[in-house]
Automatic annotation (TrEMBL):
SUPFAM superfamilies for this protein: FAD/NAD(P)-binding domain
Pfam families for this protein: NAD_binding_8
InterPro entries in UniProt: FAD/NAD-bd_sf
Protein name, UniProt field: Amine oxidase domain-containing protein
Domain of life: Eukaryota
Signal peptide: none
């Protein structure tokens, strides 16, 4: 292992791919340092935790609502996570909501396809793996540039203030923004990784999308029994993509109705600079005969 990639590796990004990679390397004797601009691990497996006035914990999985796989190698890893109490199968009914007919259609049977969720939140997997022996984590650190030191045959990550983050034998980039033009749109700087350093990857990386997403996190004081499913996608809606009831997941607080909506990318893209208009459109779609008409938006 060390002869192939070196004994000291930097991993940029602590989402599921970065965390799994770091865990695998550390278990094989490699010293790993994870850099992530966020406050903690998760990436698209992120979870937001809120405390209500009466002390109840609410978890919003505002990234991936669940994950599923038929790959044998992945499922072997999932079985390991299950044994460690990190994930559990989410056995509920799911379907499709037709915005035109205002009806739920194509409701699948409970447990017809295996869906897994993290315990107590989707970020539990990443959080646990990032804490394993041999892994150092540096959160709140944005890698501004990745420099190749030819004389030393090593990589030098540098933060946004120009400070060195150490030298590494290899770098694993699990965050697409390291090579994406969106990094420039957000920071006003070129992407951290100069594609001239890795020309063989440049074409492949151009095919990897980097699409931001907008989510709406709702909590109601009482359960909403009128909704027959615990997760559904939207049909004939230009605003909403899907919605999942996080409070129905195993181990969650069931005294509140907690749901996360994902907004369609096209709506987000064209209404990004019109926040008040976007909010009215989203709230209108969420409250038209689909079970979210009652209750106070918390």
């Amino acid at each position: 292992m060390e002869s192939a990639i070196g004994s000291k590796v930097a991993v940029v990004g602590s989402g599921i791919s970065g965390a799994v990679c770091a865990s695998f390397l550390a278990k094989n004797g490699v010293s790993v340092t994870i850099f992530d601009s966020g406050r903690g691990p998760g990436g698209r497996m992120s979870t937001r935790r809120e405390i209500t006035e009466d002390g109840k914990e609410l978890y919003f999985d505002h990234g991936a609502p669940f994950f599923a796989s038929t790959n044998k190698d992945v499922m072997a890893l999932v079985s390991e996570w299950e044994a460690r109490g990190l994930v559990v199968e989410w056995k509920e009914k799911f379907g499709i909501y037709d915005y035109v007919s205002t009806k739920f259609v194509d409701i699948e049977k409970e447990g017809s396809s295996k869906k897994f969720v993290g315990i107590p939140g989707m970020n539990a997997i990443c959080l646990t793996m990032c804490r394993e022996p041999g892994i150092e984590t540096m959160f709140g650190v944005t890698v501004g540039t990745l420099q190749w030191l030819e004389e030393k045959k090593s990589w030098l990550p540098v933060d946004m203030d120009g400070q060195s983050l150490g030298q590494f034998d290899a770098v694993v980039v699990s965050d697409i923004y390291v090579t994406s033009p969106r990094f420039t749109a957000v920071t006003g700087r070129p992407p951290p990784l100069d594609m001239m350093l890795v020309p063989e990857l440049a074409f492949k990386l151009q095919e990897v999308p980097a699409l931001p997403c907008l989510t709406l996190m709702l909590a109601f004081e009482e359960p909403l029994p009128s909704i027959p499913v615990r997760g559904f996608s939207f049909k004939n809606s230009d605003v909403l993509s899907w919605a999942f009831c996080d409070s129905s997941k195993p181990g969650r607080c069931a005294t509140r109705h907690v749901t996360v909506f994902k907004i369609c990318f096209s709506f987000y893209h064209y209404n990004l600079d019109r926040a008040s208009t976007s909010y009215r459109h989203i709230k209108s779609e969420c409250t038209m005969d689909n079970g979210y008409t009652s209750g106070q938006w918390l």
